[in-house]
Gluconokinase (Infirmifilum lucidum), 509 residues
Amino acid sequence: MYFLATDVGTTTLKVSVIDEKSNFLFYKTVEIPVLRAEHHAAEHDPEFLLRVFLELAREAVSSSKVKIDALVFSGYLFGLVGIDPQGEPLTGILTWLDRRPVEILGEMYSKVQPPLVYEKTGCPPLYIYQLAKIYWLYRRKPEIYRRTAYFVDVRGYLIYRLTGKVVFEKSSASGSQLLNMAAMEWDSELLEELGLDESKLPELVEGDRVVGELKPEVARLIGLEHSVPVIPGIFDGGSVAVGEGALSNGAGSSHLSTSTMLRVATHTPIVDKVGKMRFQTYYACEGIWLPGGALNNAGILLKWFRDNFAQLERIVSEETGINVYDLITLEASEAPAGAGGLVFIPYILGERIPEFGNEASGVLFGLREYHTRAHVVRSLLEGVAYNLKLVKEALAENSLHVREVRITGGGAGSDLWLQIIADVLEVPIHRIQAKDAALWGATILGMKALGQIRDVKTFAQSKAVIAKTFVPNEKNINTYRGAYNLFKLLLERIKPVYLYHASQSYSTI
């Protein structure tokens, strides 16, 4: 059995052909431009995305030379596009990077109480969610809002264009701030309080079910002789957890890429009982929920460092073929644990912290004359680990204990980074052997949809292979406990500074 599996990321589109034994017969990644047509905008062009997908799908079918049994998807959360009654897009696909909804947050949350919204939806009061995007369109672009027949996310848009079916998959809906977790339905009360039209939200569907078949003309276009079933799959973080086999209590799931996350599986939706709204709770499949935290800043820090401070490493990489990030982290290994007292708050893209996340920025604290580039790079890696520990502690305070972490992603190729995370979190970190955990996870969901397996959890856990385990180094634990306490103290004290900084105007040129 062969699946055409697709993962839509914020910056890349990945298409693959995978069999039931996790063999990749085809795998290709292309970059997706993020369009910034106006201040704070960050969109994908829906027609460009569809065109690139169809081109890659045709190439995948042609190159793999196998009979495709179904299409299945994984994709990013928080995307939103409005389509008119004829199915034509009225907007770009607003991504989680689109900050325009920030301007209406105060107004929106004056009409609904953030703690109550969090209690019902599992989503903290942040601008990234579809609720804020829809309300922003309602208030700032009323003509577009009026003409919109349906709001869909990125996978929903592709599925509509491929099948003609307008649906919203439940795991993505759980990350929209629009889904009532208890009822697993759109929250009518919340929508009514904000004056939003529930009829613009599509039918909710499970990610491990067939939602339709390819239109015959689409099947022919990508080189298939007949139509095949289309399965929505689930959001990318959930797909990663499935691909890693991290669906048991105590097994944390992480993906170290541009951004990162730490989630743990439970069979009931749980929110932060302390009242701080420190983590999100999203649905996956089969009654499994994934409370935890997705964090904006991880691999993006190394990319920022590469682009601005690693010109020599880039030249060496081009001449030798050595990965530029390996060269950068090699330098970081020369600095001691704790980076000589240097602490980095890694919020260069802001962060998903309700109190001040929209205003947050990066901070390098404790810089002295004896610090070197090695200390700085190591502090970047350690800052990500400290941020993950914030999530781990918040989960533990709600009786969700992470006893090990399964991890994949480009950043997971760094032994140094994984050892740092193990030392900071004080739990074993398992690097999972997977060419692409999200695509493999999507394939598993496709197998469930076609009746090839009985349940996702059992099959996923049986197929996960640990490539290497990183055990906490006792020599570093006390150092990191002290550094982490300083990290937390900085966050406690810096809120008014962030708010003042955000109120000022600065030239970026």
Notes: The longest strand covers residues 12-19. The chain is about 40% helix and 20% strand. The chain has a mean pLDDT of 97.
